[in-house]
Amino acid sequence: MPTSRSYQEYLIESLKDPDEAAAYLEAALEEGDDSLLQVALKNVIEAKIALNESNDADNSLPELQDLIEQLTEQPKLNLLSWFKVLNTLGLTLSITPSRSEHQVV
Fold this sequence. Notes:
single chain, about 100 residues, mainly alpha, about 65% helix, globular
């Protein structure tokens, strides 16, 4: 019997923390790779499902599982779909100034 958890189990456990989930999605978004972003979003959804199951909060489980199916069928989300998915996960999307050489100090 293995004594250690797999990386995936560790990842899902850590993504139950909303701050971790937000940072994880932000890092995936910054990479600019659609397939990486899709995997990251699925991992965050799986973490939310696991959190809801452990807390007996079944009220959003069907909606979360529908999101995973939607991502499988349509991996690229439009901006409005992103807002809906993030809202379901208890996250928000924000806009900040980009890092630029021409920033006013």
